[in-house]
Design goal:
Keywords: Cytoplasm, Ribosome biogenesis
Pfam family, one: RBFA
Largest sheet: 3 strands, mixed
Structural class: alpha+beta
Number of helices: 5
Radius of gyration: 35 Å
Strand order of the largest sheet: 1-2-3
Oligomer: single chain
Protein name: Ribosome-binding factor A
Helix content: 40-55%
Subunit structure: Monomer. Binds 30S ribosomal subunits, but not 50S ribosomal subunits or 70S ribosomes.
Order of helices and strands: HEEHHEHH
Number of strands: 3
Subcellular location: Cytoplasm
Strand content: 5-15%
Distance between the termini: 76 Å
Shape: elongated
Low-confidence stretches: none
Mean pLDDT: 82
């Protein structure tokens, strides 16, 4: 197993190589506006997972995924020319779900804000169902003050007074 630092450096290098090659363009018209977001290399440096996002519609994402799959061999040979490793890792392109997850989180936060405002509106005119303070409080008697002094004078059972 390779050094994790070496795997990280190789992943960074592969990310730059693939991004630059895509920037120069491929001959595939299906390829849309692709951004390489991350690369993960296995510990033995034999396989690289390339994460990407595509700006555009679902159809453009599907077409770009097909274009990247078709160009995997070309991109792998480009990586092989530009890294200093005995073996060139195989490449796998994986669509990154960051934009979809961000949109989902935004929707959930918006829904939570709406619900909070609804609850706040309901609380404005709300009244207590019972007493304002429903907790039972200990009763206080006026004659209880004398009992505290007696405890100090009388020894507890089983103890000898000194």
């Amino acid at each position: 197993m390779a050094d994790p630092e070496r795997a990280r450096k190789m992943a960074d290098r592969i990310k730059v190589i693939v991004a630059k090659r895509l920037e120069r363009g491929l001959r595939d018209p299906r390829l849309g506006f692709v951004t390489i977001t991350d690369v993960k290399v296995t510990g033995d440096l034999q396989h690289a997972s390339v994460f990407y996002t595509v700006y555009g519609s679902l159809e453009e994402r599907t077409d770009s995924a097909a274009a990247l799959k078709a160009a995997t061999g070309l991109l792998r040979s480009e990586v092989g020319k530009n890294i200093t490793a005995r073996l060139t890792p195989s490449l796998e392109f994986i669509a990154d779900a960051i934009p979809e997850n961000a949109a989902l989180i935004d929707d959930l936060l918006r829904e939570a804000r709406e619900r909070d405002s609804q609850v706040g509106a309901l609380a404005q005119g709300a009244q207590y169902a019972g007493d304002e303070d429903p907790y039972v409080k200990p009763r206080e008697f006026e004659g209880d003050d004398d009992d505290d002094d007696d405890e100090d004078e009388t020894p507890a059972v089983g103890h000898h007074a000194e």
